């Protein structure tokens, strides 16, 4: 490169933590008016027909990859001797930038980061795709959630790849077998790299030392990283052991899959948050600790008093059986159920049509309290009692619409009163609204579209995503209205020019005056209004 256009894309500026060595550019899709990140590759003579066919097949496969923690690929193309892939533009701070600023992250933050990334790797591996280049520069925090960038299918066996040689720091995060032979990428090499990134994030140190590529390569074969818990004392032993297992030199000794790592991370969170003792953890047989000495496990059980469990269970059973029959919990529950059943039988329930009528009456009031009542009473009851009824889809649409209205109102109140906003969905909406308030509708749309892409499959953010879709519709309608207005104004300007050419100056001036008076405050139409103002000044000077 450099060039200003690449197929349908208008190139703007370089992206990345180190733009001077980056091959990724910010660009705008001219037709879609969408900002994207474009990775550009050069190949001698533009690549062979076979290589081009493989690259085309790759971007078609990447377009089908959709996961909240993965940057989407929109496709690719060829331009002269260059090829390119267009990805979703994920704006935020990279893990590399965070570590440069903070040196290391808390183990809780590392755990929060690891879980979505592992989930993304599990999804990729299920599609038969190996990432092959997991480094801090390719993990971006969009809001609070991490997103993994630069997914490739043929990272090493295609001529369309980065020509930049790897830095020593990148090799220090790469599995030994992958450094020895780049074509041996596997599930195991991805898990090693992720383990190395987690090690770096927890400790602030690379797992392998070395100032040069050769030094790192030599150390990678034999150097055993120090335990994270020995460097950072508050690192839970369960996270420590999992990371060390992921960094095993021999692939069979690493976790067998991303699914296994995901389960191990869940166990790390459960045990760390419950403050379980190390001995209890070992004796439970949790896999990342991998106690191979049976005597050690037996000793841990003695420390915990595990041999008393059966006695305790027997005593508990004995106490339960001594309760009088009329005080048994099951009998009380049965009696309560019978009473409730009678009450339900007596109270004649409204029909499906009746519930819809109740909901419509409340919705027609068009107040927030009435909308909340409609959602919490007739609409929810309609879905519960008639899930397959003819009004079920309508009821769900109304609930989604009400949730969006209440969400946007709550966010407006928080922003107005400067209340704390910690929810990721609200944070992203606030950022998009700031863009829209500054009339930067392209960035606002990008932010809303990225929310739909990143959070669209997460039920926790269902309302925020629906609100983003609603706001996209609002902005697109506004853009369409402005386009119509611009066409009308341009038509009036053309008419005034014709009148001026016919020496009908007064009629032309009336048109210019009316345009300035009607649209003078609309900044989006400012370039057209300026033409009318210039014409008026030109006539005044004459």
From TrEMBL:
Q: Identify a single GO molecular function assigned to this protein.
A: protein serine/threonine kinase activity
This protein's UniProt keywords = ATP-binding, Kinase, Nucleotide-binding, Transferase
Task: Please indicate which superkingdom the organism of origin belongs to.
Answer: Bacteria
What the entry lists under SUPFAM superfamilies is as follows: Protein kinase-like (PK-like)
- Name the Pfam families for this protein: Pkinase
Domain (Protein kinase): give its ranges.
10-266
EC number assigned by the record: 2.7.11.1
Task: List the CDD domains.
Answer: STKc_PknB_like (cd14014)
Top enzyme class: transferase
Q: What protein name applies here?
A: Serine/threonine-protein kinase PknA
- This protein's species is Stieleria varia
Query: What lineage is on file?
Result: Bacteria, Pseudomonadati, Planctomycetota, Planctomycetia, Pirellulales
Q: Per UniProt, what is the name of the gene that codes for the protein in this document?
A: pknA_2
